[in-house]
């Protein structure tokens, strides 16, 4: 009997445990459901925060600072129909007579005519400074600024910068003007919401919205730093602002990528961190004043890095040092610039932008890799705008008068330069090196762009003027365990380094 009582007690205890577990499981499920519901509410709140229900309040706030720009230009040109008959055609005389009759027969077909163009811009100060694109106002005789209120004022050009396609204008208003301020374009992230405003296709003030599609885009300019956006940008939007959600300008709408001239969701705005530096200089000097190092450079590719024994394919390889600050400081062809003014150099584009953003006359430290060793050289920067007439600073080397010899090496047929060959190739009298007289089309040299008429002036970062010197450089590279040899190749005077694999 006692054992049956114990069994009943054990069963009752087990039942209580199961009941308690079921209650606990129900509570746990209820807690999980509650937490899930809370998470959904929070997610909806984040989405609502990221994308406002309406952009109208922001648009109303910033619209008064955006302007339409109309330019007028007097151009020389015909007022009648242009010729469509090829020169020398038997119908040419007939067509000319027809055109002369159409233009009165007195040469009035060449009368000047007035052309107009439309663009956008934005006010950056209450005293009337306006930013737009240089191509909007370039060559204009008269510039009219139309404000959101409908008021129109004439503008004068304070300064322009074709390199970044930025122009600074000024209007004189009787009362302070509404304006916007620049934001930090470096803080813009891919996926952030943006607003583009302007005068697309001459339709008047217009707003479009999108996101930052990409950062740090380059189109064709040396100092390019474009923000790519899918906000609708069309003809007439040029020079207008790209706003972030705080109402700050983070870009100036400049270009679109389109097969048909209309927006396909690929637009480009010059980053505000580039624009602000340009605007400040235009406001102060009426022109830009960029730093100038005075070197020709190319990117360090992996094969170039291997040929030079570098740890990584970073930095900027100097291909030429014409007269200028770098030459005076002692930088040499073949140096690899690793850092500039304390900032590591990733590639040539980064170096060009950093040098351009440096003050003219600044003394900066340039760290280079030379013959496997790192050294730092102090350089006093010049002014980029004064350097356009700089000439090459190549050293003179005695001419080689030996009989020409030809040899096939590295997929190239090579011959030392002589006066006769220089004359045939149109080279300067002081050019020294090896002429490429033929290239094997199945070789790596051909694949990497070497062609007949190129001149090899260095191999392994040492000058070469004979076949034997080049062979010695090849042997030295092999003895050092190098997989490739670095050649300095000149074409029409322009130098570049090419690394060719050693067989």
Secondary-structure map with pairings?
Layout: H1 2-50, H2 56-62, E1 66-75, H3 92-102, E2 113-123, E3 129-133, H4 134-137, E4 142-146, E5 152-161, E6 166-171, E7 193-198, E8 206-217, E9 226-229, E10 241-243, E11 249-256, E12 267-271, H5 272-285, E13 291-292, E14 296-299, H6 302-308, E15 316-320, H7 325-329, E16 336-340, E17 343-344, H8 348-356, E18 363-370, E19 373-380, E20 382-383, E21 407-409, E22 412-416, H9 419-425, E23 434-439, H10 444-447, E24 455-459, E25 462-463, H11 467-479, E26 484-491, E27 494-501
Antiparallel strand pairs: 1-2, 1-4, 2-3, 3-6, 4-5, 5-6, 7-8, 7-10, 8-9, 9-12, 10-11, 11-12, 13-20, 14-15, 15-16, 16-17, 16-18, 18-19, 21-22, 22-23, 23-24, 24-25, 24-26, 26-27
How would you characterize the overall build of this protein?
It is a single chain. The protein has 503 residues and is α+β, with helices and mostly antiparallel strands. It has 4 domains: 94 residues, Beta Barrel (Thrombin, subunit H), CATH 2.40.10.10; 101 residues, Trypsin-like serine proteases (Thrombin, subunit H, Beta Barrel), CATH 2.40.10.10; 95 residues, PDZ domain (Pdz3 Domain, Roll); 95 residues, Pdz3 Domain, CATH 2.30.42.10. It is built from 11 helices and 27 strands. The strands form 5 sheets. Strands 21, 22, 23, 24, 25, 26 and 27 form a 7-stranded antiparallel β-sheet that branches. Strand 16 and strand 17 form a beta hairpin. It is flat and about 90 Å long. About 6% of the residues have low confidence. GO terms for molecular function: serine-type endopeptidase activity. Its main location: periplasm. Pfam families: PDZ_2, Trypsin_2. It comes from Sulfitobacter noctilucicola. It is found in: Periplasm.
